[in-house]
Automatic annotation (TrEMBL):
Protein name: Glutamine--tRNA ligase
Domain Glutamyl/glutaminyl-tRNA synthetase class Ib catalytic: 31-338
Residues that coordinate or bind ATP: 37-39, 268-269
Principal location class: cytoplasm
Taxonomic lineage of the native organism: Bacteria, Pseudomonadati, Pseudomonadota, Betaproteobacteria, Neisseriales
Record-listed E.C. numbers: 6.1.1.18
Binding sites annotated in the UniProt record for L-glutamine: 74, 219
Coiled-coil stretches noted in the UniProt entry, renumbered to this chain: none
InterPro entries, per the entry: Gln-tRNA-synth, Gln/Glu-tRNA_Ligase, Gln_tRNA_ligase_bac, Glu/Gln-tRNA-synth_Ib_cat-dom, Glu/Gln-tRNA-synth_Ib_codon-bd, Glu_tRNA_lig_a-bdl, Rbsml_bL25/Gln-tRNA_synth_N, Ribosomal_bL25/Gln-tRNA_synth
Keywords assigned by UniProt, alphabetized: Aminoacyl-tRNA synthetase, ATP-binding, Cytoplasm, Ligase, Nucleotide-binding, Protein biosynthesis
Span of domain tRNA synthetases class I (E and Q) anti-codon binding: 463-542
Organism: Chitinimonas viridis
Amino acid sequence: MTTENNAPAASNFIRNIIDADLASGKHQRTVTRFPPEPNGYAHIGHCKAICINFGIKEDYQAKGYASECNLRFDDTNPEKESEEYALAFKEDVRWLGFSWDGEVRWASDYFDRLYAYAEELILAGKAFVCELNAEEMREYRGDFQKPGRNSPYRDRSVAENLDLFRRMKAGEFEDGSKTLRLKIDMGSPNINLRDPVFYRIRRAHHIRTGDKWCIYPMYDYTHCISDAIEGVTHSLCSLEFEDHRPLYDWVLDNISIDCHPQQIEFSRLELLYAITSKRKLNQLVVDGLVTGWDDPRMPTISGMRRRGYSPAGLRLFAQRCGVSKSENIIDYSVLEGAVREMLEAEAPRVMAVLDPIKVTLTNFEAGVTSSRTAPFHPHHPEFGEREVPIAPQLYIERDDFAEVPPAGWQRLTLGSEVRLRYSYVIKCDEVIKDAAGNVVELKCSIDPATLGQNPVGRKVKGVIHWVSAEHAIEADVRLYDRLFTVERPDAVRGADGQYEDFRQFVNPTSLRTVTGYIEAAVRDAAPETRYQFERLGYFVTDRYEHVAGGRPVFNRTVGLKDSWQK
């Protein structure tokens, strides 16, 4: 992966391994893969994995190697998987700017070959049909202090195991009544090698194979063989699979397959103030605590896209997370900082007022009081300019006025002057309040000699943004904030030592909707158009609910600075 300024990707231990393999001639090319399970939407942890795997392809292609990266769905758990999730993963990978090689792969593409390898293992005396139930299997398995015991069915003959397995496939037995297990070592200190189950009976309709199969292979068995079938050179996965690597290697060493990929583990991303468990994210959706998987508060790629995060911002964040085996705990501000950094250059700028006070210009003269044009970006003249019209009534932000200003105040107060951005210097002459004492209007006068130049004989320090009440358009503006109020919402323990329900830490103010007034230049903006609202932050037209030419719908992406700093 390269940065926006085309700097080379930072080296890391995975790239060091790949470089050594290419230099030694062990491999002449690189083949990686991204293998999600389609049981939810891609989240920020997947984003890191996508950038690592597809980034290797891009970088080694740039070095002249024939590099590939596959997209393969691990569809071995039919009850929880759906085409919706698979389509979302594909769209997210494309949106991030990556492309996979060839057609999308599915583990189910290999079900026939996986079954044939299972029979091969039975014929070699390395697999057996077991009838222990789940509770009995846990008892026989042992634990970290106690070795396991052989199943009473472990010594069945090859012929009996083959017959039973074929009858399992034919649907003769009830769900859960039998499993096919590898015959490895019940005394191994690595519990993953204690005769693991690699086929189970499960009558469930599959999103691709329908009702063809009533037995399904387990992930550890399926994954390594799928990698080998696809010619993967370096099988990259998160660190929780480190203890599974001996099983990965054992399976490939004990079947007649030529390719043996190298599994390499890196630390998974833990993002503070977020969760990355698809099961828990699904709970938020099911319980109605968010509007869906693509709610802009969700740490899913679809949600972050709808929030206004750009692909470049997410790729920069993934790069800053780094690749290592050490703990990868990242504060949410790092994500927001990367997004903000990319948007600073990408987003055109306009003015908007989200908490308005009306300002009446008492000496406004039609045909005399002039408007100016302003650039959409101070450093990108190619973005063009727009007119910033002025009218007798304006809106300014409520917090740009103070009746009793604090020390160092440089904005508007009674009797003081400020400059309107791209316009005149004005002075507040009168404050109008309602019956409750709330400020509802400011009467101000223009210094007509200050359009585009400083006033004579005095210095005006403050500059505030504003919009013309006559020309601005109303918009629905959604002010999003972090979804959780604590750093690790799914790791908080109560007085009894048990984990608290993470849902109680949902931020009740994570969404607030206001009516904003925005320059008319945004009227025809397409969905997913990003802007900087000057002095307020970055905003995006909603991907689904905004219609060009209609009443705009904006989502706040991120503020101009981190408001969560302690």
